[in-house]
Each structure stands twice: as C-alpha cells, then as structure tokens.
Amino acid sequence: MKTARSLWLALLLALAGAALPVQATIAASTAVIDAPAAVPSWGAAGLLQAASGLAVVIALIFLCAWAARRLGLQKHNSGRLVKIIASTAIGQRERVVVVEIGDTWLALGVTPGQIQALHSMPAQELPPEPKLPIRQGAIAAGNAAGLFAQKLRESLGKK
C-alpha cells in the first residue's frame, strides 16, 4: 500500500514538473509517510526574546524623540514669515514665546489650551549671547563638547 501511494505521488510530482529525479522523490515521499514531520514550535524563551527585542526598539524610538524635543533639535522654519526669536518655560506646560512677524515682535503666552498675546514691540537687533568664562582645560568657548567636558571635569573634581 505504501509503495503504491509512493509511486502515485512520485508520478504526480514528475508530471507536475518537479526537478527531482523519480528515485529521490520516491525516497523522500516514503520518508514523509513513515515519519511524522517535526513542527517547529515557539517556546516561551523564543517569545520572550522577540517581545523584549520589540520593547527595546520601541523604547529607543521614544527615547530619541524625547531627546530631540528636549534638546531643541526640532526643525525650525527659518526664512518664513513667522520666526521664533526666544522661548522660555514658565511652568511644566506653560511657555512665553517671542515671535517675529515682519518687523514686529510679539510676546505670546502659550498653554495647552490657548495662546494669548502678552505684548508687542518693534523688532530689534538681538544682543550677542554672553560667553561663558573659559577656564583652563576647556577646548573652546563656542564648542559645545568643550563646554560639556569642562562642566564634567568640574563636577567630578568637586566630589
């Protein structure tokens, strides 16, 4: 019975255009019929590894978005009609923003629920930013990495 079934299966495969030789097909078909096929199973370890990998990737995405928002790496539309001159956090969700529209500066109070104009004045030249004093060991005043290294050395030296 097994050989007749194997021969029919081999004949069907050969007629269907299978590239295997008939002898190899017969040997493979009898092996399939004789032994049950092993089904790959996902154990708890595999599922835990996949879930933890997915959680790490999602956490990295949220961490990068938070850091970009926190460090101000969001793209500002320079050269547009409206320019943000300065922004200061007042509370956890409240800010005062100075916006330049044409030749006018507007001071705006921004909350999650509304935006309110606080003051308006003619546009002015921005004063130069105050430079931090350079201490020995700092790379350069304008170099952010040098400033960070200087602050790190100071904080480690105090402990």
Automatic annotation (TrEMBL):
Keywords assigned: Bacterial flagellum, Cell membrane, Cell projection, Cilium, Flagellum, Membrane, Signal, Transmembrane, Transmembrane helix
Transmembrane segments: 48-68
Pfam families linked to this entry: FliO
Signal peptide: 1-24
Any one cellular-component term (Gene Ontology): bacterial-type flagellum basal body
Record's subcellular location: Cell membrane; Bacterial flagellum basal body
Any one GO biological process: bacterial-type flagellum organization
InterPro entries: Flagellar_biosynth_FliO, FliO/MopB
The family this protein is said to belong to: Belongs to the FliO/MopB family.
Identification of the protein by name: Flagellar protein
Gene giving rise to this polypeptide: fliQ
